[in-house]
Amino acid sequence: MTAHAPGPEYQPAGTREGLENVRTLVNAALDILRETSASRSGPVAPGGPNGTRAAARRALAGPLLPLRGEKVEEVLETLVRPYAEGAVDITHPAALARMQPPPVASAAAAELVASVLNQSLHAWESGPFALELDRWMIEQMAELVGYEPTEAGGTLTPGGSLSNLMAMTMARDTVMARRTGRSPGREGLFAIGMQPVALCPEGVHFSIERAARLLGMGEDNIMTVPVDDTGRMIPREAERLLRECPEGRIPVVLVAVAGSTDLGIVDPLPELADIARRYGVWLHADAAYGAGALFSPRLRPMLDGLSEADSVTVDLHKFGWSPASSAVLLVREAGAMSSFGLQATTCLSADDDTCAGYIGLQNTSLQTTRRADALKIAVTLRTLGRETMAAMVDTCHGLARHAAARIEAHPRMELGARPPLTAVLFRYLPENGLDPDAFNGALRRRLMETGRALVARTHIARPDGSTRVFLKLMMLNPDTTPAQLDSVLEEVAATAAAMEASASGS
Q1: Which contiguous run of DSSP H or E holds residue 295?
Q2: Do 363 and 250 sit in the same domain of this protein?
Q3: Which of 62, 245, 324, 485 is deepest in the core (most CB within 10 A)?
Q4: Domain end among 370, 405, 429
């Protein structure tokens, strides 16, 4: 059978000719983005899910893999234009639903370079300089959280959920090995015959429960530590649960929140670190969102004690203005990363290559092929610098306080709590016997359907154990002005009033 030679459609991006083609195609794509941006009337196209599905059906009518390749200019027009038209404009002042900051231009340029060169981090020959950049990034981030860089370790990850899973893995392996002298990663939990348990406060991120499930610990073996009236974990209750832990169960990790995504709660890290050390438990701090406070001299004291944690989750695609994925897992003692190491193989890490310095990072991650995310992060942070990063964080915090003050002054809105970071929780209080929870859920959907504003929703626990629906504004765009934010709140109030009037008249 005769093999077919690649057609003219195939052109490697990294060749001299390919780079010129990339330049032309990027300019064409940017022209499309510029045109779609100019035609927008809000943060998202109106029509809600039905409108998006209809647009997708029109754009995706052809096959994914046609018999013969199409002209790239036509493909860009067919796919990039509707993609851009149906995307959330995260630069819009009314895009306040999620932790998606608008990435800076330098980060986008670095992302393009990473894509063109397509380095990987699992083996030296897959990305020599990328490996050194990644190691340097971990050292720099370790220093930022207060670790000793020469002793700390870590890895870049796709996001906080995977970081938390890896932290829970290290906690399970480290503590159980110390307590039993055996390896759960090698022997399995059944063979060891001891049940690992985790402690965490109410409201911890759902990825902790998912990690317990995946690691064989089980969600039923998560012990919930009571919180005080501000939502912070009560240290003496954590110590009580550790002290009273039944025979046959091994507490392996105490998970602390270092900036919750709703109320910005930071658990008392110094006290929890002291308890964890005394009971031989791993302390993990989930600072995926809250780590942004590290960039602000004014807000940094919120995270006092972070350096006492055994591991820390940080997401720079939240408060780092870098595109996803830009997450980091840091560990105080690099040796704990052995949870992810495997036996040497001839294809990746032969002993003689390792001794000669040809060392990849396949033993520090759950991933093998891993893109060089450190490049865009490094370019972003070096471009912005400490002063600008601090100003950006402080500006977003100021916007949150501005929104909170406007909500408090509105006669029909209720503020969830004063925002310690940049998330603002509130809800509209309807009259005429309308259920506030159902009304606010419908209000959020109406705003999204019209395309005027994007807000999130959450549930806030009450002392009696019930919950209330609150809407959430997430401030991560320092270009937003207080006046623009006022307009968003006016839109929310006007939409709510119209819904209320319609319900009363029906």
Answers
A1: none
A2: yes
A3: 485
A4: 370
Q: Could you tell me where the DSSP H helices lie in 308-366?
A: 316-319, 351-355
3-class DSSP state for residue 15?
Answer: coil
Give a yes or no: residue 103 inside a domain: no
Domain end position, chosen among 370, 398, 429 = 370
List the one residue out of 319, 241, 335 whose CA is nearest residue 279.
241
- Our measurement of the distance from residue 299's CA atom to the centroid of its chain's CA atoms, rounded to an integer in Å, reads 20
For 370: left if phi > 0, alpha if psi spans -120 to 50, otherwise beta; the answer is beta
Beta strands 195-201 and 222-225 are parallel
Q: How far apart are CA 359 and CA 370, in angstroms?
A: 15
User: Higher confidence at residue 363 or residue 32?
Assistant: 32
Q: What's the chain's length in residues?
A: 506
pLDDT per residue as tens digits for the range 154-213? 999 999 999 999 999 999 999 999 999 999 988 988 888 899 999 999 888 999 999 999
3-state helix, strand, coil in the chain (%, to 5): 50, 15, 35
**C-alpha–C-alpha distance, residues 317 and 11, integer Å:** 31
CATH number of residue 280's parent domain: 3.40.640.10
CA torsion 92→98→101→103, rounded to 10°? Answer: -90
Q: Domain total for the chain? A: 3
| CA–CA gap between residue 339 and residue 331 (Å, rounded) | 12
Q: How far apart are CA 340 and CA 367, in angstroms?
A: 10
* CB contact at 8 A, 438 and 458: no
Same domain for 204 and 303, yes or no, is: yes
402, 358: one domain: no
Residues 187 and 259 in one domain: yes
Q: What is the pLDDT of residues 32-81, one digit of tens each?
A: 999 999 998 899 999 999 999 999 999 999 899 999 899 999 999 999 99
Q: If you compute the radius of gyration of the chain from its CA atoms, what whole number of angstroms results?
A: 25
Number of helical (H) and strand (E) elements in the chain, helices listed first: 17, 11
Q: Is the peptide bond before 161 cis (omega within 30 degrees of 0)?
A: no
| Cα–Cα separations (whole angstroms), residue 175 to 172, 279, 311 | 6, 10, 13
In degrees rounded to 5, what are phi and psi of residue 92? -75, 140
Do 174 and 222 fall into the same domain?
yes
Cβ atoms of 445 and 453 closer than 8 Å: no
pLDDT exceeds cutoff 80 at 132: yes
